[in-house]
Amino acid sequence: MFSASSQALSAYGWDGDLEQAFAPYRETGLVPARIAAVDRGRCDVITEAGPMRADTAPVASPDPLESPCTGDWAALRTGDHPAVAALLPRRTAIVRAAASGESRGQVLAANVDTVAVTVSLAEPIDLGRIERLLALAWESGARPVVVLTKADRLADPAAEHARLEEVAAVAPGADVVSCSAADGTGIDVVTAVLTGTVVLLGVSGAGKSTLGNALLGADVLATGAVRVQDGKGRHTTVRRELLPLPGGGVLIDTPGLRGVGLIDAADGLQQTFADVEDLASDCRFNDCAHDSEPGCAVLAAVEAGELPSRRLDSYRKLLRENDWIASRGDARLRAEREGRYKEISRSLRQRYKIEGKKR
């Protein structure tokens, strides 16, 4: 059970486990809050007493992975100048490689239960991008669902069914559903499979905000038209924000992702390519690279037409990318350690020099 004062937060995901984790903070006069949006050293939070603005300086960190993010649960100091005093441990976190190409990760959303990988049926399906987003979702610890939007743009129902089967083939273990927010077709099915804290991920123009409005039952999120010349969408969502869903749970809309780099996503890749991993277990060599080794069950499946060569190429590509980012991260950590050792050595030399002059 959790306190009566926390009942107002139950709609945002507060439960008994969170109440237990928060108990030490409550004893010091802090109150629980969920971060709805973050910008420029401030954040919007939802508290037992309602929404408010708070300072994030007390929990600011040079490491992006440790910085407050939409979806975080926080211990809030109220008063004339509300401030986030601490962050509760995250149950899940969607982490991508930093857009700058650095080896550090960037948290897109925290404490997510369901990731809706949003894909437009109005454009050619990019299976490689779906696999990348699925790896990101699986790695987070949340449950991925692929939502194919704009089904009304396909005049032939057989074409929609073919797209569903095509996507389902690259999404083992994940639900794949289609809908049209324009006419409401399939929204009831989508609502049924998106549970808890839901985050919408996808490129600009995929229909995330339009889908979000359909789920929210109101035009809350800004939407924009897709450019005719290239089929790309404009970034109508400029920041991540958290909103309650009428049927329970909360929704996090995110800006369109131009690029999604994987970081430390080995488990996510295993889930995404579970079919390839299953085949690999029958390879003659445990360290088979599925390139030209004799007795490779993966290559045999490709030659037999049981596994598309495109999928194997995508698997190799994402593994290489993940390994490369990991190696850069190791190099960065070594450089940081060496930098700290050098700084300590300089301080010690300076100290000995000063003490020597005093003698």
Automatic annotation (TrEMBL):
GTP binds at residues 149-152, 202-210. Binds 1 zinc ion per subunit. Keywords: Cytoplasm, GTP-binding, Hydrolase, Metal-binding, Nucleotide-binding, Ribosome biogenesis, RNA-binding, rRNA-binding, Zinc. CDD domains: YjeQ_EngC. The keyword Kinase does not apply. It comes from the Bacteria. The keyword Lyase does not apply. Zn(2+) binds at residues 283, 288, 290, 296. InterPro entries: G_CP_dom (IPR030378), P-loop_NTPase (IPR027417), Ribosome_biogen_GTPase_RsgA (IPR004881), RsgA_GTPase_dom (IPR010914). Residues 110-258 form the EngC GTPase domain. Pfam families: RsgA_GTPase. Its main location: cytoplasm. Monomer. Associates with 30S ribosomal subunit, binds 16S rRNA. One of several proteins that assist in the late maturation steps of the functional core of the 30S ribosomal subunit. Helps release RbfA from mature subunits. May play a role in the assembly of ribosomal proteins into the subunit. Circularly permuted GTPase that catalyzes slow GTP hydrolysis, GTPase activity is stimulated by the 30S ribosomal subunit. Belongs to the TRAFAC class YlqF/YawG GTPase family. RsgA subfamily. This is Small ribosomal subunit biogenesis GTPase RsgA.
